[in-house]
Amino acid sequence: MEKVNLTSGFILLAFSDLQYNHGALFSTILVIYTLTWTANLLLLSSIKLSPPLHTPMYFFLGILSVVDISFSTVTVPKLLSCILHGEAAISFHGCFLQMYFFLFLGVTEIFLLSVMAFDRCVAVCIPLRYTSLMSDKVVVILSISCWVAASLHSLLHTYTLSQLKYCEDRLIHHFFCDMTPLIKLSCSSTTLAELLIYTEGSIAIIIPFLFILISYVLIGWAIMKMKTNSSRSKAFSSCSSHLMVICLFYGTIIFIYFRPPSDYSSQYDRIVSMAYTIITPMLNPFIYSLRNQDVRQALKKLITQCFYDT
Hints:
This protein is mainly alpha-helical. It contains eleven helices and three strands. The chain is 75% helix and 3% strand.
């Protein structure tokens, strides 16, 4: 078997081996992708144009919207092309560039969710020190740290997989260049790549998750000690949306990347991958908007102003 040269690239099969209604799937994904852009841009505009939302919590929420738009854009256009043509060619460099941004944005969201948990922990547990602890400088440092750490993580895995030898079978049974399908295509030793996934990859996901878990244990303890129901309700309301997003995102991530290799199924992986690459970025702004009174008021004001101006 020969190594794939850099000009030959790969073929993304997406769902070509499955029986499905191409028109219905294309239309559904296109609608979801359009809603992702629209909902996240509305949320971003509301945060920018509403002074009461110029706080660390909404600053991080704005970054999350940018990440969600970018995250879905990395995979959805190629998926739509796959559905239209049955499959889609992608160059060697294009494949690993897609992988880099996919990992970069996905891990950025993981780190960002942990930072948002820390922000809520400070706000609920020590509200009197919130302003000093979550200063503009701290917020910027935390945001940049998320981007830098995610970039290094993505670069490590992308470079490692790009150095593998890939056989003549260039068919990727997925709708984007993910790590596991590419490892399956390699005809050289994948020990290092798999070791990195289960060690460094696990650290990048589990440590933020433990940080989130500890933050919410402290938040729960602080809420239990509050004397009035209104205080408890307000504190819980500010955290519930974040908790829903965490459960939705982490649930699918753990299913995909933390299973024994013997349990690998390209069919199930493709379906579950759609949840966190396509559906979750669309749902996030709705979850935050519908469950947050401040965001709802800002959105209502923005929409009313748009109609009034026209």
